[in-house]
Design brief:
Helix 1 packs antiparallel against helix 5 and helix 5 runs parallel beside helix 10. The strands form three sheets. Strands 1-5-6-11-10-9-7-8 form an eight-stranded mixed beta sheet. The protein is α+β, with helices and mostly antiparallel strands and 412 residues long. The chain has 16 helices and 16 strands.
């Protein structure tokens, strides 16, 4: 016998007994995002590698360590590690800048990153997210955050808390980087190898390090005292203050995290994460922010933009399990031709119906019906002769006999 082939490490099958949860999250996303005027976009899962090196940032862990990249026809191709860059590419390529602002897009689908698989994090994972183009004012930031909060509430997650910060603009960030490096320099030799590289190439990313020894160093008072908001220019401070005003008026609970930076290079000004304390533990379920320079950086016209993304595996892990949807009816009969024809009649009327294809005994058919359907439709010899059907409610056990012509109305 041949060796059994198994799924690749870091990937998982989404099985029939789990798919209802995925459908629930996807349908909720469509419903909530549509209320805010978002239209779904589907971009390819493969893009030219340059899109991510230019868009996400050459100094990020994603580009340096985690991308699945291969050569084909003398061109470097990458499986998308995130979807903002792909949506921005599509926005530019398809001339969406000519559309009235704001342009609102949402997406769902698989992403790919090579990293150590762990709970809630796989090498193929799925995200749902939104992107808004064309509005520079902080009212857009507020609406984006509210959209995310309302989506999470619609899923059933509660006790949500928004963590908020402003990274300022390239101008006011430079002074912050300078002061941050001065505070960290005495500890440089104690930092991990990645942080020692980031110290020169991208010091903001130091604060996003997950290595415990580095986190301990960055928690020191002299480093914590270097706060980004102290360096915000007047325009960035006014933008941040107005955003907080909107959130206060909309009763969105938030707290400021002065060292929240996010892991991607394209962010500026507003960055945020949303955490849920559902099920007694605090979990980050959403991250996003403003990226006003990315469209221009990828070859488009200067266009302000903001968005967020959520890991679907993480969301589903926090939600209570849903029972699989049951069939409307299961036809129980030893007369296969009649059962087959009857099933097609009911399917043609929009009902979800199955009948026995395996020639099981009558009692086995009833047993299966009780597990997967709301009603058992019994076609015995007497029912077929009289053009009747016996309908058994599989929740209550009550059984009635009706004319075949009335069966559809009864079930509906």
């Amino acid at each position: 016998m041949s060796e059994i082939l198994k799924v690749l490490k870091g990937t998982k099958d989404i099985l029939p007994q789990d798919i209802d949860m995925w459908h629930f999250v996807e349908k909720t996303a469509e419903d909530v995002f549509s209320k805010y005027g978002y239209k779904e976009i589907r971009t390819p899962i493969i893009e030219v590698t340059e899109l991510f090196s230019r868009g996400v940032g050459e100094t990020t862990d994603i580009v340096n360590k985690e991308m699945y990249t291969f050569e084909r026809s003398n061109r470097s191709i990458t499986l998308r590690p995130e979807n903002t860059a792909g949506v921005v590419r599509s926005f530019i390529e398809n001339g969406m800048s000519r559309l009235p602002s704001p342009v609102k897009l949402w997406y769902k689908g698989p992403m790919f990153r090579y990293e150590r698989p762990q709970a809630g994090r796989q090498r193929q994972f799925h995200q749902v997210g939104v992107e808004m183009f064309g509005i520079e004012k902080p009212v857009a930031d507020a609406e984006i955050i509210l959209t995310a909060v309302n989506f999470l509430k619609s899923l059933g997650l509660s006790h949500l808390e928004v963590e908020l910060n402003s990274l300022g603009c390239p101008k006011c960030r430079e002074e912050f980087k300078k002061k941050l490096k001065e505070a960290i320099r005495p500890y440089l030799n104690d930092l991990c190898e990645d942080c020692q590289k980031r110290f020169e190439t991208n010091p903001l990313r130091l604060l996003d390090c997950k290595v415990e020894d580095c986190k301990y160093i960055y928690a020191k008072n002299e480093i914590q005292d270097v706060i980004m908001s102290d360096f915000l220019c007047d325009d960035c401070k006014a933008h941040y203050d107005e955003l907080k005003m909107y959130l206060d008026k909309l009763n969105v609970h938030y707290k400021e995290d002065k060292h929240l930076v996010r892991g991607l290079d394209y962010y500026n000004r507003t960055v945020f994460e949303i955490k849920s304390k559902s099920l007694g533990s605090q979990n980050a379920v959403c991250g996003g922010g403003r990226y006003d320079h990315l469209v221009e950086q990828l070859g488009g016209e200067p266009t302000p933009a903001i968005g967020f993304a959520m890991g679907m595996e993480r969301l589903i892990s926090l939600l209570p399990k849903k029972e699989s949807k049951r069939l409307d009816a299961y036809i129980v009969t030893n007369f296969k031709t009649d059962g087959f024809i009857f099933a097609e009649e009911l399917r043609g009327e929009g009902l979800n119906v199955e009948f026995d294809l395996a020639n099981k005994k009558f009692t086995k058919q009833l047993e299966k019906a009780s597990k997967i359907a709301k009603y058992a439709l019994i076609l015995g010899e007497d029912e077929i002769e009289k053009h009747h059907v016996s309908i058994k409610n599989l929740d209550t056990g009550k059984q009635v006999v009706v004319n075949r012509a009335d069966c559809i109305n009864f079930l509906k």
